[in-house]
Amino acid sequence: MRILGIETSCDETAAAVVEDGRRALSDVVSTQIEIHRRWGGVVPELASRNHVVQVMPVVDEALSRAGVSPAALDGVAVTSGPGLVGALLVGVQAAKALALAWGKPLARVNHLEGHLVASFLAERPPEFPYLGLVVSGGHTSLYLAEAFGRYRCLGRTRDDAAGEAFDKGAKLLGLPYPGGVAIDRLAKDGDRAAVKFPRAVVKGADLDFSFSGLKTALLHHVKKHGVPRDGDLADLCASYQEAIVGALTQKLFRAARRLQLDRVVLSGGVAANSRLRAAVREKAAEYEGVEVFLPEIRHCTDNAAMIAVAGTHALERGEVQGPGLNADPAWRL
Ligand code: KG4
Ligand code: ZN
Fold this sequence. Notes:
By secondary structure, the protein is of the alpha/beta class. The chain has helices at 33-37, 44-66, 85-102, 111-117, 162-172, 179-187, 212-225, 230-259, 274-286, 297-300, 305-316; strands at residues 2-7, 12-19, 23-31, 75-81, 106-110, 130-135, 140-147, 150-156, 263-267, 291-293.
C-alpha cells in the first residue's frame, strides 16, 4: 500500500510517499521559517499564500523522489485539522483535487494523530498500547494510544504549549524564531540549576500542563536583571529549558506509572529538544522496564510522512472521504 501524504497545517508545506505505513519512500518538507522569522512568529496569511505556491511542486518532488507515478498510488491522505484554517484549506483542496483526478481514495488525518504515529517510521516502532506525548508549538497533550485510530486524551495544557513557552521565552531574550532551537543550542553550555523557575501546579487534573507562569517568571527575571549575555545567557536558557523539560517528564512518567504502561512515545517539534530527549531516557532508566521511543528529529517536526502513516490505517479501516471534506481548524483528537 503506497499512500501520498500532504501536510499544510502550519508553516511547513510537506508531501511524502509511504509504503505499508512504515517506510518513507520520499519525505519532502519546504519550510517557511525564513519568511516568518522577521515577524517573530507564524503569520497565518503569509503561511496560506506560500502553501498555495509550494504545494504542487512539493507533491511533484515527493512523487519523483519516491519514483512512484500517481497511477501506482493506493490513496491520498491529508491533514484536515487542527491548525490554521487558511493553511489547512490549501492542503485539503489540493488533496481532494488530486484524489478526484487520479481516482484514488482520500483519507483525512488529525495532525496530532500524525505526530502520535510518527515513531512507526523508525526502524524499531512501538507496540500498542503506549503513552504518547505530543509536544509542539501548538500542542502539549498526553494520550493513551490503544490502536491506530483509538486515542484517549489524559491531559493537556491549560494555557501555552511547550513550544510556545520556548518561542515566547526566546523572544523575551531577543533570540531568533523558532525559539526552541535557539534555546536548545545556547543551553548546551549553561548551568541548568543557575536560576530557579517555578514548577506549575495544576489544580484538579494533575496530568494537565501549564506554562504561562513560567513565561511570566522569565519576564520578571529579565525586567529585574536585564537580558544577560554570554555565559549568563546560557545559564538562563539552560534553567528555563530545564523547567519545561522537568514538567514534561514528571507528568509523562506519572502517567506511565499510574496506567502501568511501559512504552512512552514522544513526538512534535519540542521532542527534537536535546535535553528533553536525554532527560526522558535518564528517567526511563530509573523506571526499570520503561521503553522510550523517539522519532528521528525530522519526524518530530511537521512532516507529511507521519500523515501518510495515519492515513494508511484510516483507509484500511475504510474511512474514505468524499469531495465534501473540509478543513477543521479546531478538530480535537
Ligand atoms: O511540531 P512542530 O514542527 O509544529 C507544530 O505543530 O507546532 O513544532 C514546532 C515547535 C516550535 O515551537 C519550536 O520552537 C519547537 O517546536 N522546537 C523545539 C526544538 N525544535 C523545534 N523546541 C525545543 N527544542 C528544539 N530543539
Ligand atoms: Zn505539528
